[in-house]
Amino acid sequence: MKILIDTNILIPLEPVHSADIEPQRSAALDFISLCLKNNIEIFLHPEGRKDIENDKNQIRKQIRTDAYKKYKELVHPPAPSKEMMDIIGDPIPGSHDEIDIRMLASVFQDAIDYFITEDQKLRKKAKSLNLQDRVLSLNEVLDLLSRLFPSNIPMPEIVKRLPVYSLNEKDPIFESIRNSYPGFDVWFQKCKLEHRESLVIQRENSLAGLCIFSEEKKDQIDGIKGKVLKLNTFKISPDFSGYKLGELLLKSIIRIARHEKFHHLYLTTHEEQLAFSFLDDFGFQMLPNRNERGELLFVKNLFPTSDARLLTPLEFQIRFGPGIEKLEGVSFYFIPIQPQYSRLLFRETEKQGELFKELLPVENSIRKAYLCHSNNKQIASGDIVFFFRSEDVRSVVAIGVCEYTFRSQDPKEIILKIGQRTVYSFSEIENLTKKEVLVVLFRESRILEKPISFDELSRMGAVRGSIQSIQKLKDEALPWLIQRIVE
Fold it and tell me: I need a surface site. Which of 100, 156, 187, 399 has the fewest CB within 10 A?
């Protein structure tokens, strides 16, 4: 993205002395910070120098002239076109209006994406050229960039995003990596110097899980188009095997990748290190070639490929999820869940700061199970299930995709089939099986940042009365609900 700033934006950014500090300085600095974080290019127009040259205070003029040199200048900016001049008229040669029009021409001719100015008169001209959505004030561009590049990616509380240079390379989790990779220490030093990032799961004084990641050059992977995020290291401490921390790290890194517009995840591994069932379960595909070190190459697509239409809804979810669902050819159901089970099954729906002393596999996993006494026999593989948290928030808080369902009154059969997927204890399952139990095995796809309240569901005609048991979405509300969940 390329943004042109007016001189009236440069001035609050570069005060000459304390008396020159303007009210907009804080907003201007926030704007610059957002641009730097998101690789947005900032330009000044050559005509902007004339505003500085007209300053009669020689010292201030010199300081601002020097400050001007810190920014890129738009090279050979386009001149106003006849079409543009026919709309707004010819300015007086050498006037400030002429400077304004030359700056506007940069937007009109698509040399830049946005032009930022606090000049109201100039913005009126922009409106007459139908450029009002691209000629913005500081506050407007801050709002735009904050929405386009939200800085806070919701993450499970126990997962932290840290620069690699902040990690303790003596942590026990690195021992097996160091033993299998002779050049580890040199590589780790390189990661520090390059400011690579990591996701870590910290338990007490050591790391329980770690993923170091970085953008991969596309030309190193044949046939892959779009941005690629490489998982340089993906490791769970042996002390925490069975806690589904691999699934927790994976859904966290996928969330980051989607947010930062990556199209693929990529990793390499030696055969002896291969956790093939894990990679296969979550949609990683092995490429036919190996790299120069003889390692196997795996890619996971995060967005539908050309063959997606041939996949069943569940196959689609495995290949591209979590975070995306196949919404065609499926049914949609609301499933009520009590708060005490919701906070365990969907840990992220709890308020940040509520620490969980006990680490439970079901909280971390992508694959989960829900048990109830519903008579529903319609939910099928690939159907979308909306979990409606009852009693307190009375809202849809999470979206899942059904793997399969079964009915049973045998607690042992249920335990054998659902394993660590459930929030229920054996005694609770025994109590449930006094009647026949419906078991819904599903994949968590998304935690809703904006839960859908019962009032909203009712107002839009999505439900029939209160949601006290599994309920199918009313057909007439489907277009609204699809739009609501893809916002």
Answer: 187
Last residue of a domain, one of 90, 119, 148: 148
Q: Give the Cα separation of 293 and 286 in Å (integer).
A: 16
Structure tokens at 419: 């394993």
Rg (CA), the chain: 28
Domain that holds residue 469: 332-485
Which residue reads 């708060």 in tokens? Answer: 339
Q: Could you give the CA distance from residue 210 to residue 169 in angstroms, rounded to a whole number?
A: 12
Q: How far apart are CA 317 and CA 312, in angstroms?
A: 9
- Residue 457 maps to which CATH number? 2.30.130.30
Q: pLDDT tens across 76-113, in order? A: 999 888 898 888 888 888 777 788 889 899 999 999 99
> Any idea which residue has 């409606």 for tokens?
388
CB atoms under 10 Å from CB of 292, counted, come to 5
Residue 218 lies in a domain: yes
Name the token pair of 155.
């993450």
What is the per-residue pLDDT across 241-290, written as a single tens digit (0 to 9) for each?
878 999 999 999 999 999 999 999 999 887 766 678 889 999 999 998 88
Tokens 């899980």 belong to which residue? 209
DSSP assignment letter at 134: T
In terms of pTM, does the model score above 0.70? yes
Token representation of residue 168 = 């303790």
Peptide bond preceding 23 in cis form (omega within 30 of 0): no
Last residue of a domain, one of 148, 179, 210: 148
Distances (CA, A) of 236 to 175, 314, 322, 384, 401: 12, 27, 20, 31, 26
